[in-house]
Amino acid sequence: MDRFLWSSGLLEMNETLVIQQRGVRLYDGDEKAKLDVGVVLLSTHRLIWRDLKNHECCMAIPLSQIIFFEEQAAGIGKSAKIVIHLHPASPNKDPGPYQSSKFSYIKLSFKEHGQIEFYRRLSEEMTQKRWERTPVSQPIPTGTGSQAGRTRAVGIVGIERKLEEKRKEMDKNISEAFEDLSKLMEKAKEMVELSRSIASKIKEKQGDITEDETIRFKSYLLSMGIANPVTRETHGSGTHYHMQLARQLGDMLLAPLEERGGMMALTEVYCLVNRARGMELLSPEDLVNACKVFESLKLPLRLRVFDSGVMVVQLQSHSEEEMIASALDNVSEKGSLTSEEFAKLLGLSVLLAKERLLLAEKMGHLCRDDSVEGLRFYPNLF
Amino acid sequence: MHRRGVGAGAIAKKKLAEMSKQLETFKTHLEEFASKHKQEIRKNSQFRVQFQEMCATIGVDPLASGKGFWSEMLGVGDFYYELGVQIIEVCLALKHRNGGLITLDELHQRVLKGRGKFAQDVSQDDLVRAIKKLKAMGNGFGMIPVGGSYLVQSVPAELNMDHTVVLQLAEKKGYVTVSEIKESLKWETERAGHVLDHLLKEGLAWLDTQASGESQYWLPALFSELSSQDVTPEEANQMVP
């Protein structure tokens, strides 16, 4: 509020009144100014406020002092406001109602409405900047660093305009995108229908299609993301892509598997592989399908599904019997073990430790003690 | 006489050739689409939802394979597969505390945090789709409807209807008592006890015997105040008597 100057409120030559509005209270920053409700007037050059009852009390701010302004919506018990941010006052400014203020913005509170129209007119004046073009007889003080201020004000209003344009552009882009998407989907649909008719032909006359062609068909389906309608599998679910993947995994997983006791949950493998790749990541299905062809490619890894549904990749060299025998050893040595304890012992994840113990139990080597305190395994002495 | 060249086999061969050609054409269309709108998919979650639903309608799964056109050209694949990795990692990190059950909200928050402020926004719909894909790898990824949203399960703990219904009951306060179960669900004590025991064993519930009145069974998945004080696995073990 320290930017205001006392004013007579009389308009200068070449200064025109644009709009005025009653019922406006001024705010110094967020605090009500020590003034009553009055009238706010917008001219081509200034923002003027006058007390309704006491016409002597009249003050003004040059429009050039405005950096930018924004609307503040009405709330419960609160009128709509326009918040106006201002350049700092120049040190030799003429006196006004406030000597100093900790705020660099004021608010106009529209107690009798009118804010929408006022905002619109203010926007117009701030865009047109008629005060620059029409000199007045009495030079109206401008804000400090007015040159820079002017460009800054242009900058901000300019930015706002650009944002609005960008918003409109974005809306247009999105509707265009949706349109293009629909057209694309139409074409994709044709592909799906074609693949279905091929699949039914293959089913009918299975003998007449070569292995190679079936693989080709599968890779087409893979490209389009169409589920394989031919339930008959050749080798696993493999396309050349999956076979290639399986070989890569065969190389990549040997060391990690050794470190982890010969077994890794598939989700662990997924994270490991994709983190290493960084891009062109594998889908979960890619991974599963690749693992399914380990055996047919004679790679030293196997995909294994436990009764619980947990899927793991394990080293072929780690035979089942060995794992169970060593599990029994561990348990016997300690007397009994829970999954957590076993996991810690072997450096396995708790999940896989549990699976191994369950397996040993299934084979009759261990028996369980199941209580609320947890699941504990003992050597089976029965 | 055996007629060759005619019959379903030959027709299939011809159609295969046709499909190969059409695929090339489609690829071009997709490339064109990608060059104009690839950004839209990455930035706009609403657009992704539309895209996924349209694919589902025509019978196409754009996330089936990283080798698919959709993934390669639109980059949808990497977006969701990476999200899958992040989901797995979050669930793994919290498993010692919540037993492998987490609300979709908490998962969402933590994934967003992990992605950092410069990463693209992900919506809950994105998470749900990524989780659906993770199911292919076994390991019990699933979603349980609870209180208007979901609990995400990341362990193969068997949860049947009884367990689910008790989880839903506990959702309001984060805990449940035997009396509450008996009153709301009209079960006998034994059935309630059975279900609660199972949840305790699976590490999904903790027992508070010092609560005033009746013992309370707390579900760490359902309350996020705990997230401010992280409980170590040792502490977690101590809380179950």
From TrEMBL, chain A:
Q: What terms describe the molecular function in GO for this protein?
A: phosphatidylinositol-3-phosphate binding; ubiquitin binding
The record's annotation in InterPro entries points to:
GLUE_dom, PH-like_dom_sf, Snf8/Vps36, Vps36, WH-like_DNA-bd_sf, WH_DNA-bd_sf
Q: Where would I find the GLUE N-terminal domain in this sequence? A: 1-138
The protein's matches in SUPFAM superfamilies, at most eight in alphabetical order, are given as: PH domain-like, Winged helix' DNA-binding domain
List UniProt keywords, sorted A-Z: Coiled coil, Cytoplasm, Endosome, Protein transport, Transport
Which intervals of the chain form a coiled coil? 156-187
Q: Which Pfam family, any one, appears in the UniProt record? A: EAP30
Identify the GO cellular component terms for this protein.
ESCRT II complex; late endosome membrane
UniProt KW Iron keyword: no
Q: Does the keyword Transport apply?
A: yes
Task: Give the family per the record.
Answer: Belongs to the VPS36 family.
Instruction: Please give the function described in this protein's UniProt entry.
Output: Component of the ESCRT-II complex (endosomal sorting complex required for transport II), which is required for multivesicular body (MVB) formation and sorting of endosomal cargo proteins into MVBs.
Protein name as it appears in the record = Vacuolar protein-sorting-associated protein 36
Q: Which organism is it from?
A: Paramormyrops kingsleyae
Automatic annotation (TrEMBL), chain B:
For the keyword Protein transport, the answer is: yes
A GO cellular component annotation here is:
ESCRT II complex
Check the record and name the Gene3D superfamilies matching this protein. Answer: 6.10.140.180, Winged helix-like DNA-binding domain superfamily/Winged helix DNA-binding domain
Q: Which residues form a coiled coil?
A: none
Gene Ontology biological process terms, A to Z: protein transport to vacuole involved in ubiquitin-dependent protein catabolic process via the multivesicular body sorting pathway
> Is-annotated flag, keyword Transport?
yes
**Record-linked InterPro entries:** ESCRT-2_cplx_Snf8, Snf8/Vps36, WH-like_DNA-bd_sf, WH_DNA-bd_sf
In which compartments does the protein localize? Answer: Cytoplasm
Can you tell which superkingdom this protein's organism belongs to? Eukaryota
Oligomer and partners: Component of the endosomal sorting complex required for transport II (ESCRT-II).
Name of the featured protein = Vacuolar-sorting protein SNF8
Query: What are the leading ranks of the lineage?
Result: Eukaryota, Metazoa, Chordata, Craniata, Vertebrata
